[in-house]
Amino acid sequence: MQLGHRIKKRRQELNLSLRELAEQIGLTASFLSQVERDLVSPSIKSLRKISAALDAPIFHFLAEHDAKSPVVRRNERLKLTLPDSNLAYELLTPDLNRQMEALMAQLEPGDDNIAMPLRQYTEEFIYVLQGQLEIQLGEDVYTLDPGDSVYFEGPLLRRLAAKGDEPLRFISVITPSVF
């Protein structure tokens, strides 16, 4: 099922017309119609607005399958790269219908200023597996090496950056689910 079809299905589940959804999020009904027909891809900003209005996490619309098993095998992880971002995710939880998300993320050396500011309150835990992570929480900047971890309130996150010469890999656990 394509992104647009999932958005349309969720909108219809909520008995919202295209026009009603468009008015709620400040986009045009014609643009939303094109999104639902998979003629155009929404920006992350637009997708966030759509997901908030439809009361569903972003990854609900991006996921390719629903989990049937509580076990997630290494070769069966949902992989996701967000548009306009070099941050690649692998979902470590069976599906997106959970109160908590566990993700493995990867950034290439030199990728900087990667962050998704959150409107809602979340708590997040990050554990660095490989490389060096520079993270800005509010006005404070921290550098984490493999084996280091950080726990913070999601709205404090300002910036993530991969420092050093090797790819950065980390595990992120977020609650409540944001994607």
Fold topology:
Blueprint (H helix, E strand, L loop, with lengths): L2 H11 L4 H8 L3 H8 L7 H10 L4 H5 L16 E3 L6 E4 L9 E7 L15 E8 L1 E6 L2 E5 L4 E5 L3 E7 L4 E8 L4
Antiparallel strand pairs: 1-2, 2-3, 3-9, 4-7, 4-9, 5-6, 5-8
Helix pairs in contact: 2-3
Polypeptide structure, described:
The chain has two domains: 3-56, lambda repressor-like DNA-binding domains (434 Repressor (Amino-terminal Domain), Orthogonal Bundle); 74-175, Sandwich (Jelly Rolls), CATH 2.60.120.10. Helices cover 23% and strands 30% of the residues. The protein contains five helices and nine strands; from the N terminus they run αααααβββββββββ. The protein has helices at residues 3-13, 18-25, 29-36, 44-53, 58-62; strands at 79-81, 88-91, 101-107, 123-130, 132-137, 140-144, 149-153, 157-163, 168-175. β5 and β6 form a beta hairpin. 21% of the residues are buried.
